[in-house]
Specification:
By secondary structure, the protein is α/β, with parallel strands linked by helices. The protein has 13 helices and 14 strands. The chain binds 4'-deoxy-4'-aminopyridoxal-5'-phosphate. The site of 4'-deoxy-4'-aminopyridoxal-5'-phosphate has 14 residues, from helix 3. This is alanine--glyoxylate transaminase.
């Protein structure tokens, strides 16, 4: 006890005020958050069990019901990024031994294959080459053959730029005792999602893309069939942190509220504001805005001789656009030039598209004509500097 304290490790952290460059984030996400959303995030702290904070949580849930287009009251924000939403859905909807059919046409399907296996699912990977969606017939065949407990599809495959049509799948899943789980991380708010009308049972998303909030929150929806599965599980979900029986009880799903974890107070202010902006604009104008800018982008890129990676026009996603890197072009130099010259982020490929494509996001607050014009200009300049124009 009388021994002197050892010498403390010296402080090596920052001592100056934080300095962050201003960048236009036109990759696949995060996108720039709306200034009103950022302002909301700096409001005073509330306790995570304080009634004014519960009111904000209620407002978020009502906003999510609109964005998902559902009457189901089982919506909430998972504290964590899109992956936390993904893992919450898998951990709660998959019981050990359940068959899970996973639409696997990019890295998100591949991750769900991995994740569902970790939670004891018997995974059937429905493989498709990068750049293509699944036809109704392919999905029908996989569902009728395997009668899975869960079918996973990604509405917007951001590693490949593919949009998955969900028409008719709700009925197909109902007829086969299957729950339909959909990833909407890069699509929610940017392309139509009609959870009830399409018979989707569970959805997760992300805060940092079309919804124009910072990363860290995953909007989640469970329809009545998903809830029934959750409530009647024979085993507890293997993740305590993501147990939706417990998180749902914090969000008031079951008529009371009890502490499971500390809600992400400031981020939920931001989410509340992001949803208020969606409500102000309306979903149909938002979808139309994203679609129109996607068309404008491709018009400009086409004039530069650039081509879409996704062959079938019906499969092209408007929120994440994949552009083929032409023979002999240094894609990374184009990305670097865009950042160095214009402070614009354009991304390279991911997973199966690395080195093959550039990816341009058209999302939320960034989905404006002047930003599309700047991206086209950055491509023009980047190609010109390589003597390719
Ligand atoms: N799914 C899709 C379609 C995505 O685009 C992303 C993020 N790029 C994720 C899931 C994972 O989200 P996060 O990085 O927020 O965990």
């Amino acid at each position: 006890p009388d021994e002197p304290l050892p010498e403390l490790q010296p402080y090596a952290g920052p001592t100056t005020i934080i300095d962050v460059p201003s960048r236009l984030l036109m990759g696949p996400g995060p996108a720039n958050a709306h200034p009103r959303v950022l302002a909301a995030q700096s409001l005073p702290m509330l306790g995570h069990m304080h009634p004014p904070f519960f009111k904000i949580m209620d407002e978020i849930q009502a906003g999510l019901q609109y964005v998902f287009q559902t009457n189901s009251k089982y919506t909430l924000m998972v504290s964590g990024t899109g992956h936390a939403g993904m893992e919450a859905c898998i951990a709660n909807l998959v019981e050990p031994g359940d068959t899970v059919v996973v639409g696997n046409n990019g890295i998100w399907g591949a991750r769900v294959v991995d994740m569902a296996g970790r939670f004891g699912g018997k995974v059937v990977s429905l493989d498709q080459e990068a750049g293509k969606s699944f036809s109704y017939e392919e999905i029908k065949n996989a569902v009728e053959t395997n009668k899975p407990a869960v079918l996973f599809l990604c509405q917007g495959e951001s590693s490949t730029g593919v949009h998955q049509n969900l028409a008719g799948l709700g009925d197909l899943c109902r007829a086969n005792g299957t729950l339909l789980l959909v990833d909407t991380v890069c699509t929610l708010g940017g392309v139509p999602m009609l959870a009830d009308a399409w018979g989707v049972d569970a959805i997760y998303s992300g805060s940092q893309k079309v919804l124009a909030a910072p990363p860290g929150g995953a909007p989640l929806f469970f329809g009545p069939r998903a809830l029934e599965k959750l409530r009647n599980r024979k085993t507890k979900p293997a993740s305590y942190n993501l147990d939706l029986n417990l998180i749902g009880d914090y969000w008031g799903w079951f008529g009371s509220r009890s502490y499971h974890h500390t809600g992400m107070v400031s981020l939920w202010y931001a989410m509340r504001e992001a949803l208020a902006l969606v409500g102000e604009e309306g979903l149909e104008p938002m979808w139309a805005r994203h679609q129109k800018l996607h068309e404008d982008l491709w018009k400009g890129l086409g004039e530069l001789g650039l081509e879409p990676f996704v062959q079938n026009p019906d499969d092209r996603l408007c929120t994440v656009n994949t552009i083929k890197v032409p023979e002999g072009v240094d894609w990374a130099a184009v990305v670097k030039n865009a950042m160095d010259t214009y402070s614009v982020e354009i991304a390279g490929g991911l997973g199966p598209t690395v080195g093959k494509v550039w990816r341009v996001g058209i999302m939320g607050y960034n989905a404006k004509p002047q930003n599309i014009a700047l991206v086209i200009e950055a491509f023009r300049d980047g190609l010109k500097k390589q003597g390719k124009l």
